[in-house]
TrEMBL record:
Pfam families: DAO
Domain FAD dependent oxidoreductase: 4-316
InterPro entries linked: FAD-dep_OxRdtase, FAD/NAD-bd_sf
Matching SUPFAM superfamilies: FAD/NAD(P)-binding domain
Domain of life, source organism: Bacteria
Keyword Oxidoreductase found: yes
Record key words, sorted: Oxidoreductase
Full protein name: FAD-binding oxidoreductase
């Protein structure tokens, strides 16, 4: 009999787990209170990359080091999944260079120092999530959208599935991949998941196609081109409390873009406020819920970057029964006695 897995949350992480588990032969049900990719996944800047040689090493480094290889695997295996492999230009870092002007000819003042990370890229996280869900379904997974999980099914002291208004489904393992909603889902099980919402802004601008060619990071902004010349900019949250204040933040960023790039043809299209799920120590939380057999958690930042590697390793644990060494330091039980 196939391993029965219910995945709660159809953002990019939940979709990754559902795809990899179904592909590995699991009997998978993917459940979301809305549509796949409609939560915080849609608010992601979606820069994907691996640690650099000088970066600090922590318990997530082993997981992060393989993500670009897994992204290329997905690109080859998942129909319709695309990555924009344009590299990342880190302005103000590294050695003196004259190459920034070649990479980004529309910069008004090319940086004297810059690092170009050619292997990095970016994705449309909603399109990727939808492609993963389609691929998961092609391997037999079932999707239940617009279905809010109300409670866990419990039998003999262990989690044995989930239920919602008017129905339920049994499972050998329930994977909670619901981002910032995960703590509330797990609280009735007696587990306090150390995750809080971390707000951030994602801004969209109309601009001439090709104005930004790579993903550009300066001390003042992070910007990349999406489809049709539209620009995406990630910005910190500064306490905006209504649409007028979000628009004002967007207009301030528009002026910054015009000051940085040689054009005045930039128009603000919109600003979204997203609540990223941020573990208390900044490290992913992946593994069995302590003291609750049958429950498994998969919550992390950045979920977009880590999704293919995390999904693959979680599937190997739940379907293949093989503990992943890369996840050893990321278990939810860490720091508890």
């Amino acid at each position: 009999m196939s391993t029965r897995i219910v995945v709660v949350g159809a953002g990019i992480v939940g979709a990754a787990v559902a795809y990899e588990a179904a592909r590995a032969g699991g009997d998978v049900v993917l459940i979301d209170k809305a549509l796949p990719g409609s939560g915080v996944t849609a608010d992601s800047f979606a820069w994907i990359g691996e640690p650099r040689s000088g970066d600090a090493v922590d318990a997530s480094t082993a997981l992060r080091r393989g993500v670009l290889r897994d992204w290329r695997r997905w690109e080859a295996d998942v129909p319709g999944l695309q990555v924009r492999w344009r590299g990342v230009l880190l302005c103000g870092e590294g050695e003196p260079t004259t190459g920034a002007a070649r990479l980004e000819p529309h910069l008004r003042e090319p940086p004297a120092h810059a690092v170009f990370l050619e292997s990095h890229g970016a994705v449309d996280p909603v399109a990727v999530t939808q492609a993963l869900v389609r691929a998961a379904r092609s391997h037999g997974a079932r999707l239940m959208a617009n279905t809010a999980v109300a409670a866990f099914l419990m039998r003999d002291g262990r989690v044995a599935g989930v239920r919602w208004s008017g129905g339920g489904v049994d499972a050998d393992t329930v994977v909670v991949a619901a981002g910032a909603d995960a703590p509330a889902l797990l609280w009735p099980l007696g587990f306090d998941l150390p995750v809080t919402p971390s707000p951030a802004l994602l801004m969209r601008f109309a601009a001439p196609p090709g104005l930004v060619r790579t993903l550009v990071v300066t001390p003042e902004l992070e910007v990349r081109e999406a489809a049709g010349g539209e620009l995406l900019v990630a910005d910190a949250y500064h306490g905006e409390i209504d649409h007028d204040e979000l628009r004002q933040a967007g207009e301030a960023m528009r002026r910054r873009l015009v000051a940085t790039f040689d054009t005045h043809a930039v128009q603000l299209l919109g600003v979204r406020l997203g609540a990223r799920p941020m573990p208390a120590d900044g490290l992913p939380l992946i593994g069995p819920v302590p003291g609750v057999e049958g429950a498994y958690v998969a919550v992390m930042h950045s979920g977009v970057t880590l999704a293919p590697s995390a999904g693959r390793l979680i599937a190997s644990e739940l379907v293949g029964g093989v503990d992943a060494a890369e996840l050893a330091g990321l278990r939810p039980a860490r720091g508890r006695t």
